[in-house]
Every structure is written in C-alpha cells, then in structure tokens.
Amino acid sequence: MTEKPLVEIRDLKRTFDVSKPWLNRVIEGAPKQFLKAVDGITFDIRRGETFALVGESGSGKSTVARMVVGLLPASGGEVIIDGVPIADTSRAAEVRRLRRRIQMIFQDPYASLNPRWRVERIIAEPIRALRLAESEREVADRVGELLSLVGLHPADGRKYPHEFSGGQRQRIAIARALASKAEFIVCDEPTSALDVSVQAQILNLMRDLQDRFGLTYLFISHNLAVVRHMASRIGVMYLGRIVEIADGKTLFARPRHPYTRMLLNAVPDIAMTGRMREAVKGEIPNPINPPSGCTFHPRCPFVFDRCRREAPPLEEGVACHAVREGRPVAA
Amino acid sequence: MTEPVLSVRDLRVEFATRRGILKAIDGISFDIAEGEVLGVVGESGAGKSVTGSAVIGLIEPPGRIAGGEIRLAGERIDNLSPQAMRHIRGKRIGMIFQDPLTSLNPLYRVGDQLTETIRTHLDLSPRQARERAIELLAEVGIPAPEKRIDGYPHEFSGGMRQRVVIALALCAEPDLVIADEPTTALDVSVQAQIIALIKRLCAERGTAVMLVTHDMGVIAETADRVAVMYAGRIAEIGPVADVVKHPLHPYARGLMGAIPSLETDADRLVQIPGAMPRLSAIPPGCAFNPRCDRTFARCRLDRPEPIVPAAPADAGHRVACHLYDSAEAEALP
C-alpha cells in the first residue's frame, strides 16, 4: 500500500462499569461488574473509501463510532486520524484542527437536530464555531449552498426541523456535517429510521457527495444489503470483536467466518431465488458474561474444544480457529 | 367456492381533525383465504397499520370507520358493539404487535398472562389452561417451558418475548392473525426464526395471516399474496411472485428498485422523487401522479380504481393505474 490510511484504529477497547450501586455491593457482597462493549479491535480506513461495520444489536458498532469521533473516551487502544492520535493531550492544537475534519451523522434525525433552532442556524453553527466564514453574509451564502447541495431549497433554512420529513431531516444533518468541510464522516445507522424509497434517496446522495468531495465514510449499519451497496470494505462485529474483515465483494461472495455466513443466510431473500434460509440457532449472548474462548462458540455449528478455550485472533481477515486450521466450515 | 376468512370491501377510515377530515384509508378491498398469508406493504403513513386496527376494531376516536364492510368468515364485524367485538378479538382474531415489550404486562408472569387469555376464550380449568400454556410455549420454541412459564417478561430476550406474544396470539386458535411489523424490532438472525415460526404455525392450523410490514424481504419470503399501499389506497395487489418480480404500478416498481439487494449490483438505487403526500394534501386524481414518471392528463383528474391489468392477466392481480386500462393502453405507444 502506497498511501497511509486516513484512519487507523489500534486495539481499541471500551468497558462500561455496570456494577450495582456501592451500598448494594457492600450488603450483597457482589463484585464490580464490567461490560466489554468493544474488546480490542484494529482496522484501517483508507482515504476516500467507505468502511462499514455490521453486526447485531449489542455487538459494539455504535460504541466504536462514538469513540472514533471522540464522543466517548476509549478505555484502551488508539484512534489515529491522519497520523494524529486523537487522545494525545500533548498535541491538543493539532487534535483541535483535526476535529473540524471529522463529523458524524446519527440514526435518529428527529433527535439529532435542535427543535428550537431554525435550520439555517443549525447548519451555520459549525461554520461560525470554526470561523470558516468572514462575514455573516458569507455564512448565509454558504448555508444556502449547502442546502441546495443536499437537495433542499435555500429558502428552507428559515424553517424549523419539525417542518421537515425524516428524509429531509437526514439531508439537513448531512448538510451540517459538510458545513465544516469535513473529510471523514462517521454515519451511525443513517437510514435505519427511514422508509426504503427515502433510504434510496439518502444513500444515493451520500454516494454523490463522496464522489464530489472525496469523502471518507465509516458506515455503521445492521442492514447487510445497505452495507453491500455502500461499502468498499466491511468489518463484521460480534460481541465487541471483529470476526471478519474483507472487501465488500469478497465478503458477500465468499464469507469465511461461520457468523458471517449465518448473518448472510438470515437476510430475507427478496429476489426469491428459492434459496432456503437457514434458521439460525440462539441469540447474541449477554455481553456482561460472555462465553469463554471464541464468543460465538455456543451458536457455532463447527465448534470444537479449542474454540471453548481460546479466543481466536483476527488473522488474514478472519478470527476463527476452524478457518485457520483449514477445517471445513461450509454446511 | 369457500368463503374467505377475511373480506374487506370498500373500507374507509377517517380521522376528524381541527383542519378537516383526513382520509387515512380511502376505499380498499381485499380478501384473505384460509391458510393464506397476505402481506401488506407500504411506507410510513400509507395506512397499513390503520387497516389492521380497523379489522380488529381498535380504531380510536377521533378516527372512525366511515364506510365499507369487514366480514370475518362471512359475518359482518365492523358494526359490532364494543362488547361483541371484544369476544372476537383474541378469540377469533389474534394480534402480534411490533414491540414485544409493550404487548406484555411487565408486572405479571408470562404464565399468568397466557392462562388468563386462554381461560377468557376457552372453557378450561386453571390446571388445564396452564398445561395448554406450557404446550404453546414449547410449540413456539421456548426452551424449558415448564420453568420459563413462571418468568417475567423482562427475563426474556427480545426474540423470546416475541415468541411469547405469538403464543398469546395463537392460544385461542383464532381464524385470523394480524401481525403488525412483528420482526421490525428484532435483529436479522432472530427475525428469520420468528418469520419461520409464524409461517409454520399458521400453515399447521390453517390460520389466515395479515402481515403488515415495510420490509419487502420479509414479504417476499413469507406471503402468498401482497398488497402495496400508497396514501390510503391499494396501488397493486396480487400473487407475491408477480408483484415482487414484475411489479406493474409505477410506485411498486420504484419501491422494488429502491431496495438494495444482496444479489444484484447497482451503482445507484432507483429513486422515487419526492415523498408521500400528507393526508391533508392528497393530490386529485391518482395520489401518486406528482411523483410518477409516466403520468398523463387523466392521472391528474381521475382516481384509478383497481383493475385487472391488460397484458399479464394473472388470477387475482389488480393494479390501480390508468396505464393498464386497456382503453388507454391502445392510445399509448
């Protein structure tokens, strides 16, 4: 690889303290309890690509997203963006300049926009805060430009968020993300709250903007079809770990990890090819008390002794003992 | 010919608001036969859930059924008293809602909720009802049902709770089950399990199912027939293979193209411009005409009624679009 990746995630970890209150612990003699939401993940995002994280609820995808943008401090490991570790306090000035280039789009377009602010003020906020415009007139021009960029009318800036539909609000959120001339946008389930036809509009818009401005996306979703459509590379998460990482095409054509296979199998078949869906056994376990060894072993059809003892490391894009040892994992 | 389990004719549901009357459902008709799964799809606000609520008699004021007929096994149920409706609801029509946590009472054990429902509808002793409840839990795939029956809803995971809700819906052996977005709150791997379960149980019992969802994948896999709703009307209804693979109505076409797929590569998704109109501002003529790329003069004047399409004339396929009116088809290139 010639170019250095824009984002490097190194052994990123996050634990949450989910202990009972102090008094209960003293009375009941209960120990402190920790939830490992993200348990040491490593990946790179290249400039201009869309890297997706998929997984079921509770797999830690959103926690990763929040750590990458710096909304949540990491318990361990590093997030390095353009060579600067964002948690490095000795390089505060650099980190601050970096912040401008990172933006986030949230899942719920009803909760992520301030209902008391006019849309123009919402979009202008990053421009004003980062002093990206010389005059108020320039701010207004830029807001109008951003609104037309995302397919709204410049006059819509006078309205309040409640006057817009879900899809239009998501467009406003995108305009706000672009207002600071961001290069790297973390999108946490950006279309999950939208209807399919509106989802298509937003996904198309996101791709157009990527082509136009060379944006880099970290795309978080539970919807495999959406991820396949958007991402160049995909990481599959299960209980706080990445179990498989591959190119979009490869992952869907030749999934390797048994969990990835299971997920792909579970997607309803809209093309009606007559492919039989395999009924998956079990559900994602409680992350407070995860299974020993490979956390997927209680649901895995190819489990053997070693899986129960040792957690498999992510090597050559897959974390699975069976794949490593070349044992058959195809049903 | 046997009578359909559910027969809806020209149903209209209106909501009186300060700004006038909103027509949430504007004249829809469909049948569901015994053992059949009818999928109802559409985007938010299309009227899918209101249709379901109308059938089970749960339209709350200011909403009201303003016209049409709903028949359950030939008997009219839309004009029954609330008391009479209560006997039908749960006994003859079962319901499965989207959020399994809110459809179970958090303060009662799962077993109490099941036995209460069973004893309301069936003449059984408490012991018999409990046995029946355990059987049902086993049937919906809850491991160790004789222990779990004494658990509270919060002790169950999302998928397990939805199984309990399914057991509740089926406990009185209803003729019809209305499932409103039963898998939307669940993860894909669990979703597949729940869909398979609903399908198997209803097939075994010959229960008719009305499956309301916005997920085309679920419909494609589960339903026998599908109705595509748009702005309170049925745009297209027909066998699921025809509607999903060869949709006719321009809206249905756009909707299918908008779904990213696992099988085919597309650089861009098909995009329907604009958004569904608000109920207060449904355009005259065909409600879809401002977003449609094939509109012509008549679309703006005349509201299309569901017709048997001229070209691929399949049994039971209906489309509400002027393009498929044979008289128009001749006039168009």
TrEMBL record, chain A:
<dbReference type="Pfam" id="PF00005">
    <property type="entry name" value="ABC_tran"/>
</dbReference>
<comment type="similarity">
    <text>Belongs to the ABC transporter superfamily.</text>
</comment>
<dbReference type="InterPro" id="IPR003439">
    <property type="entry name" value="ABC_transporter-like_ATP-bd"/>
</dbReference>
<dbReference type="InterPro" id="IPR017871">
    <property type="entry name" value="ABC_transporter-like_CS"/>
</dbReference>
<feature type="domain" description="ABC transporter">
    <location>
        <begin position="7"/>
        <end position="264"/>
    </location>
</feature>
<keyword id="KW-0813">Transport</keyword>
<keyword id="KW-0067">ATP-binding</keyword>
<dbReference type="Pfam" id="PF08352">
    <property type="entry name" value="oligo_HPY"/>
</dbReference>
<dbReference type="InterPro" id="IPR027417">
    <property type="entry name" value="P-loop_NTPase"/>
</dbReference>
<protein>
    <submittedName>
        <fullName>ATP-binding cassette domain-containing protein</fullName>
    </submittedName>
</protein>
<dbReference type="GO" id="GO:0005524">
    <property type="term" value="F:ATP binding"/>
</dbReference>
<keyword id="KW-0547">Nucleotide-binding</keyword>
<dbReference type="InterPro" id="IPR003593">
    <property type="entry name" value="AAA+_ATPase"/>
</dbReference>
<dbReference type="InterPro" id="IPR013563">
    <property type="entry name" value="Oligopep_ABC_C"/>
</dbReference>
<dbReference type="InterPro" id="IPR050319">
    <property type="entry name" value="ABC_transp_ATP-bind"/>
</dbReference>
Automatic annotation (TrEMBL), chain B:
<keyword id="KW-0472">Membrane</keyword>
<keyword id="KW-0813">Transport</keyword>
<dbReference type="GO" id="GO:0005524">
    <property type="term" value="F:ATP binding"/>
</dbReference>
<dbReference type="InterPro" id="IPR050388">
    <property type="entry name" value="ABC_Ni/Peptide_Import"/>
</dbReference>
<keyword id="KW-0067">ATP-binding</keyword>
<dbReference type="InterPro" id="IPR017871">
    <property type="entry name" value="ABC_transporter-like_CS"/>
</dbReference>
<dbReference type="InterPro" id="IPR003593">
    <property type="entry name" value="AAA+_ATPase"/>
</dbReference>
<dbReference type="InterPro" id="IPR003439">
    <property type="entry name" value="ABC_transporter-like_ATP-bd"/>
</dbReference>
<keyword id="KW-1003">Cell membrane</keyword>
<comment type="similarity">
    <text>Belongs to the ABC transporter superfamily.</text>
</comment>
<dbReference type="InterPro" id="IPR027417">
    <property type="entry name" value="P-loop_NTPase"/>
</dbReference>
<dbReference type="Pfam" id="PF00005">
    <property type="entry name" value="ABC_tran"/>
</dbReference>
<dbReference type="Pfam" id="PF08352">
    <property type="entry name" value="oligo_HPY"/>
</dbReference>
<dbReference type="InterPro" id="IPR013563">
    <property type="entry name" value="Oligopep_ABC_C"/>
</dbReference>
<protein>
    <submittedName>
        <fullName>ABC transporter ATP-binding protein</fullName>
    </submittedName>
</protein>
<keyword id="KW-0547">Nucleotide-binding</keyword>
<feature type="domain" description="ABC transporter">
    <location>
        <begin position="8"/>
        <end position="256"/>
    </location>
</feature>
